[in-house]
Amino acid sequence: MPNAFISGVGFNPASNVVKNDDLRTKYGMETDHEWIVKRTGIEERRFADEGIGPADLAVAASQDAIAKAGIKVTDIDLILFATLSPEMAFPGSGVLLQRKLGLCDAGKFIPAMDIRNQCSGFLYGLATANAFVRSGGAKHVLVVGGEVHSAALDLSTRGRTVSSLFGDAAGAVVVSATDEDRGIRGTWLGADGRHAEVLCQRVWDMTKRPYVPLNADGNGVVVPEMLYAKMDGKLVFRHAVERMITVLMQACWEHKLTPNDIDLFCFHQANLRINEYIAGQMGLPPEKVVSNIQRFGNTTAATIPSLLFEAERDGKLKPGMKVACVAFGSGFTWGCALIDW
Ligand SMILES: CC(C)(COP(=O)(O)OP(=O)(O)OC[C@H]1O[C@@H](n2cnc3c(N)ncnc32)[C@H](O)[C@@H]1OP(=O)(O)O)[C@@H](O)C(=O)NCCC(=O)NCCS
Fold first, then answer.
1. 20 to 30 A Cα–Cα from 168, which one of 27, 246, 269, 291?
2. For residue 207, is it within any domain?
3. pLDDT at position 117, please?
């Protein structure tokens, strides 16, 4: 059975920098820089231009990852696209990315699968890619986390608790087969559907007839409570800390490791305070815990590939290092991957 390793990483944040003060001055949100920094660590995020979707952002990230893997785009056997902000209800962003990468024109009608596990989506994708590669079902899998949140954020004061947190970006990795003794050593995934509505964006209700209310002209009308994401932030915070610590401890335990044996921690970037709390509880040295939430906010499925990309670019992630990636998000869902880089 081959091992599966990450052969290339790419990252493409959206182009427009939106500073905390811009939320107030450009969008009219009653907020201030200090409030956001103190609660979350976020100083700025990126918003995509109108007309740009997650698959568009994913193109450059994917091409970079593919180039670093030393393969051609036509060598990709499978696309896994994790996003909570797909261009449309269906089909998903994966087929759009396939088309934008030129695979259809090249006659490469490979499978494209969408993953709907929000902030844990990238790790759910990585686990799936690992299984495909190790079982011989694919040699090179493109795993993407891509989001354009800005289109669906309530940027008025009403939506500030959620809207001040998120940004737009795409990250991508290629997971490839190798006979070398390296790569993804294990993945651990979990979910607790009891809390599905604690962090959710409904938009429609498929149990109702019609599934969105219609006005007198027969046009769909979506009220703000349905249109935008809702969150009980304090509950999310508590569960995130507990689940991320537990899944990381489980991974270490099963691989007979202590956190000291791990060289780099890539935690989902939801809130700097969550990650500082976890690092404090587990006694992790700050230099082993990378973060970029200060510059990009929470880019949901894109956070972990963005951290891997920057750590490698900055010389903090080198072959032979042991990496732990951990995420938590809506669902609730969570995951951990241990990788020998
Ligand atoms: C979102 C979060 C920063 C909010 O912090 P909090 O301390 O729980 O704050 P609250 O929601 O209780 O709000 C406190 C006050 O600040 C206000 N507030 C919320 N967002 C604000 C903003 N951007 N600017 C200024 N004030 C804001 C609230 O309206 C509230 O005002 P009130 O007391 O007059 O009603 C925090 O709960 C959090 O980060 N939770 C985790 C969220 C997360 O990780 N989500 C993604 C999961 S993948």
1. 246
2. no
3. 98
Please return the burial class of 209, using the count of CB atoms within 10 Å of its CB with bins 0-12, 13-18 and 19+. Answer: exposed
Q: What's residue 314's pLDDT?
A: 98
Q: Which of 45, 161, 166 to mutate to test the pocket of ligand 1 (most atoms within 8 A of CB)?
A: 161
Which tens digit of pLDDT belongs to each residue from 285-332? 999 999 999 999 999 999 999 999 999 999 999 999 999 999 999 999
Q: Which atom of ligand 1 sits closest to the CA of residue 233?
A: 37
Residue 222: how many CB atoms within 10 A of its CB?
A: 13
The confidence score (pLDDT) of residue 323 equals 98
Give the tokens for residue 216: 């007198």
144: containing domain: 3-181
Do residues 126 and 160 share a domain? yes
**Active-site choice (268, 271, 275, 325):** 268
Is the full-model pTM beyond 0.90?
Answer: yes
Taking the centre of ligand 1 as the mean of its atom positions, its distance from the CA of residue 288, in whole angstroms, is 28
- What is the tally of structural domains in the chain? 2
Portion of the chain with pLDDT greater than 90, in percent: 100
Please check whether residue 45 is in contact with residue 22, taking contact to mean a CB–CB distance below 8 angstroms. no
Q: Is the domain of 286 the same as that of 334?
A: yes
DSSP 57-122: HHHHHHHHHHHHHT--GGG--EEEEE-SS-SSSSS-HHHHHHHHTTTTTTT----EEEE--GGGHH
Look up the CATH number of the domain holding residue 257: 3.40.47.10
Q: Which residues of the chain have pLDDT under 70?
A: none
Q: Residue 33 is encoded by which pair of tokens?
A: 């820089």
